[in-house]
Amino acid sequence: MHTAHPHHHLPLLLLLTLGRVVAADTQLKTLLVAIFVIVDALVLLILLWTIYVFCRRLKAKETGKENPPPGEVNEKGEGVRCEEEEEDAVVQEPGKITFAKDGGGFGLEELLKASAEGLGKGSFGSCYKAMVDDARMVVVKRLRGVGPVTKEEFLKHMRSLSAMEHPNLLPLLGYYYSSTEKLVISNYACNGNLFDRIHGKIADLSSKPYETGGGRRADRIPFSWSSRLQVAQGVAQAMEFLHLNMRSSVPHGNLKASNVLLDESDKPLVCDHGLVPLIPASLAVNRMVCYKSPEYQHNRSVSRKTDVWSYGCLLLELITGRVAATSTPGGVRGGELCHWVNRAVREEWTGEVFDAEFLVHKRATSGMIMLLKLALWCCEQSPEKRPEMEEVAREVERITAGETDAEDD
C-alpha cells in the first residue's frame, strides 16, 4: 500500500491550525465584548441611581420636606416657635405647628385630639373651636382652595401675616402646612362675628332683606349706637394699618361683617386679611368681596381703593341694620345698600335708612348723619373719587370724638 509523504500534508495542517487560532480569537473577542457591555451597563445604572438620589435630595431641600431616616420622625407633634431666621429661610419640621411669638404650648397631636365644635364654613374653609391646655380656646381654620404655592411660599406669607400686630387685628397664633392640610390657628373671640351681632345668629333674612329688624331673634342682645361706632372706628384703624404695612394691591380683599370678630368688650378684631396672594383668581372671583366692587364689574380691576369700598359697604350695614349683598352668607338674600341709601338721600327720606334699634327718640344724631355721608363717599362708583384709608380713619375718629362730647354735654 502506498503511504503519503508527511511533507505533502503540511499545507493542510497549517490551514487547520490557522483556522483554530482564528476561531479562538473570535470567541475571545466575543467574550471581551460581552464583558465590556456588562461593565458599561453596570456603570450606567450606577450613574442613573446617583442622579436620581441627587435630584430627590435637591427637591427635598427646596421644599423643606426631606424625609428623615426611619425611626427619627418625631410623632409627638410638639409645637416649635419661629426663631429669628433669615427672611428667605423659613423652616418647618415635619408634623409640627409653626407658632408666632405669642403662640405655642400645644402640639399638632394634642390639637387633633382636642374636643372640637364646628363654627361654620367660610369662603375658604371650615372653622372649628377647640380647647387646648385644658382651658384655652382656639379657633382652627382649615384652608381650602389655596393655590399652587410651595411650602416655603406658604410659610413665608404666614410669617409675614403673623408679624402684623394691631389691637384691632385678630392675632395669628400659628399655622401648619402639609401637602393635604393647611391650618391657621388664632384665639377664640367670645362674642362671635359682626354679622351675627347685627342681624342675629339664627335669623330668617331671606324674605325681606331691607326690613329693619326683620328676622331678628327676640332674645338677641340690642346693638347700641355707641357699640356700632366703636366697631366702625376699630375696623377703620385696622384697615389703615394694613394699608400702611402691606405691599399688596388689595391689603385685605375680603372685608365683610362675618370677617369682623368681637371680643368680650365688643372690640372689633378684623380677620382673614392678606389671603389674596394665596387664592387662585378663578376661585377668588366668586368668593371675595373685592371682586364684587364696581371697578371689577366694569373694568376687571381692583386696587387699594377697593378695600375702601368694602369698608363703606360695612358702614352701611352697621348704620341701616340691613343685609348687604357683599356680606351675605349662604342661603341669605342681601340687597344693594349703596343704591338703596343713595335713593333715600335723593328722595329726602334719609331718616328711614337708620336702624330704629339705636335711634334716640326716633331721631338721627349729627354723628349718624356724618357717618352715613362717609359711607357713601367710600362707596363712590369711581375709585378715584373715594378717600384713602388713612383719611377715612381720621374722619371716623373725629365723628367718634364729636359723639362722645355730645353725650358728655
Can you tag this structure with a few keywords?
409 residues, alpha+beta, Phosphorylase Kinase, domain 1, Transferase(Phosphotransferase), domain 1, 2 domains, 7-stranded mixed beta sheet, two-stranded antiparallel sheet, 11 helices, 9 strands, 42% helix, Prot_kinase_dom, PRK1-6/SRF4-like, transmembrane
Description:
- The protein has eleven helices and nine strands.
- The protein has 409 residues and is α+β, with helices and mostly antiparallel strands.
- The chain folds into two domains: 78-188, 2-Layer Sandwich (Phosphorylase Kinase, domain 1); 191-409, Orthogonal Bundle (Transferase(Phosphotransferase), domain 1).
- The strands form two sheets. The protein has a seven-stranded mixed sheet with strand order 1-2-6-7-5-4-3, covered by helices on one side. Strands 8-9 form a two-stranded antiparallel ribbon.
- β3 (116-122) and β4 (125-132) form a beta hairpin.
- α5 (225-245) runs antiparallel to α11 (389-408).
- The longest helix is centred in the first third of the chain and has 54 residues, at 10-63.
- It starts with 9 loop residues before the first helix and ends with a helix.
- The model is unreliable at 11-16, 62-92, 202-207 and 209-213 (pLDDT under 50).
Shape field? elongated
> How does the major sheet shape up?
7 strands, mixed
State the helical fraction: 40-55%
Number of domains: 2
Instruction: Sketch the topology as an H/E string, one letter per element.
Output: HEEHEEEHEEHHEEHHHHHH
- In whole angstroms, how far apart are the ends? 158 Å
Q: What is the strand content?
A: 5-15%
Work out the number of β strands. 9
Which CATH class of the largest domain is shown? Mainly Alpha
What strand order characterises the main sheet?
Answer: 1-2-6-7-5-4-3
